[in-house]
């Protein structure tokens, strides 16, 4: 079995707590499935910034390029402006490595009480365009000291950018329930959205098994709260997808549960796997962070690297632990990060034993 080189950036705050927890789980899985995962840690983040004036070294991106995947915790610190942490590390990685798909699965988990409890299970995926749109570098500036003081930033939507996101989302929908919802705001106020609609419709028409519905993002936000179980795959621009996915994660329980993959689908560059939550300075250092989003992101990384069975093993292990009632505080439990992780490690072993028993 070939070795995979994985760059690990725990980052800041609870990133430094949930990343080691999840790596312990990945190492156990690797051992049981005879995979070689070589983890290389990088101490980049806000402390690095306070010492060196930048989030990562000059040759940070070329160093990462030597890896098969990047496993990130979270970056962000009260001592460093968020613009520095994001534009100094996360955004350059997403753009340099053409990670134009931000994939965010959302589903209800047994044992986790959703704040809007209903008998319908939620199982949807948000495909967020990750390289352009509202998070563009064009025109972003503030105009101070003028009578018309203000700030301007241009949204950029290209045919290539929109169509590749739509292709990815449509083919994913075709492999699921065949329903694709596009988040739009095409009622003439946001001038880029009619273009988004046009390219999405054109692209999805190539997938006869996929039904496309365009929904205004404000109505779609309400839809996600009221009837999330009717949604299958959502395709959205960078900003809309960012907001909808935090909302969708909260609807199923806690943002501490939700994973994400920043994908370069062609595999030309490394993809990046991270939980959707941030560094949570309010609870950092207390050992109480929920490691599920980080562990689940690890399962997505295994899947991306081609190890479907190992990914499924990790996924079923943490799901079974939640079902057994072991929970961190954010979802109403009392377990510490370490206790939850120990329970996952034991469950991984127990499931491996069951499999062996089942085979004999
Ligand atoms: P956050 O996700 O860090 O925290 C929001 C709330 O959710 C907090 O109350 C926090 O305690 C809770 N929470 C988050 N993850 C949790 C977990 N795993 N277990 C238990 N509770 C959890 O968002 P924020 O407060 O808006 O941002 C804090 C910092 O993180 C900022 O500097 C921000 O820029 C950064 N951030 C980074 C990323 C990233 O690295 N991709 C993403 C979002 C925010
Ligand atoms: Mn976000």
UniProtKB/TrEMBL annotation:
Alphabetically ordered keywords of this record: Manganese, Metal-binding, NAD, Oxidoreductase
Keyword Membrane: no
Required cofactor(s): Mg(2+); Mn(2+)
Group of enzyme by EC: oxidoreductase
The Isopropylmalate dehydrogenase-like domain, residue ranges: 5-344
InterPro entries (UniProt xref): ICDH/IPMDH, IsoCit/isopropylmalate_DH_CS, IsoPropMal-DH-like_dom, TTC_DH
Stated name of the protein: D-malate dehydrogenase (decarboxylating)
SMART domains (UniProt xref): Iso_dh (SM01329)
Species whose genome carries this gene: Sinomonas terricola
EC number: 1.1.1.83
UniProt-recorded Gene Ontology molecular function terms: tartrate dehydrogenase activity
Pfam families assigned to the protein according to its UniProt record, in alphabetical order: Iso_dh
Coiled-coil ranges per UniProt: none
Reactions performed catalytically: (R)-malate + NAD(+) = pyruvate + CO2 + NADH
SUPFAM superfamilies: Isocitrate/Isopropylmalate dehydrogenase-like
Similarity field: Belongs to the isocitrate and isopropylmalate dehydrogenases family.
Gene3D superfamilies reported for this sequence: Isopropylmalate Dehydrogenase (3.40.718.10)
Superkingdom per UniProt: Bacteria
């Amino acid at each position: 079995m070939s070795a995979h080189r994985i760059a690990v950036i725990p980052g800041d705050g609870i990133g430094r707590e949930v990343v080691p927890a999840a790596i312990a789980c990945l190492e156990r899985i690797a051992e049981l499935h005879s995979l070689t995962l070589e983890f290389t840690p990088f101490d980049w983040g806000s402390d690095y910034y306070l010492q060196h004036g930048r989030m990562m070294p000059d040759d940070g991106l070329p160093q990462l390029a030597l890896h098969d995947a990047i496993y990130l915790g979270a970056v962000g610190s009260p001592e460093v402006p968020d613009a520095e942490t994001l534009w100094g590390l996360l955004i350059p990685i997403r753009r340099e490595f053409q990670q134009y798909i931000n994939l965010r699965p959302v589903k209800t988990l047994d044992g986790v009480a959703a704040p809007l409890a209903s008998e319908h299970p939620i199982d949807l995926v948000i495909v967020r365009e990750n390289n352009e749109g509202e998070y563009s570098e064009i025109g972003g500036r503030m105009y101070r000291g003028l009578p018309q003081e203000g700030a301007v930033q241009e949204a950029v939507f290209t045919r290539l950018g929109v169509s590749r996101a739509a292709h990815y989302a449509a083919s994913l929908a075709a492999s699921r329930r065949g329903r694709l919802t596009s988040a739009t705001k095409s009622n003439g106020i946001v001038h880029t959205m009619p273009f988004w609609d046009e390219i999405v419709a054109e692209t999805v028409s190539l997938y006869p098994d996929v039904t496309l519905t365009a929904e205004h993002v404000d109505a779609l936000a309400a839809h996600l709260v009221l009837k999330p179980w009717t949604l299958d795959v959502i395709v959205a621009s960078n900003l809309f997808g960012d907001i909808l996915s935090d909302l969708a994660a909260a609807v199923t329980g806690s943002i501490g549960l939700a994973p994400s993959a920043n994908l370069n689908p062609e595999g030309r560059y490394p993809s990046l796997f991270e939980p959707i939550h941030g560094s949570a300075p309010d609870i950092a250092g207390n050992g109480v962070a929920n490691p599920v989003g980080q562990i689940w992101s690890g399962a997505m990384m295994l899947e991306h690297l081609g190890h479907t069975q190992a990914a499924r093993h990790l996924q079923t292990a943490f799901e079974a632990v939640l079902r057994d009632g072991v929970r961190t505080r954010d979802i109403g439990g009392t377990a510490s990060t370490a206790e939850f992780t120990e329970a996952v490690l034991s469950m991984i072993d127990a499931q491996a034993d069951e499999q062996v028993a089942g085979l004999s």
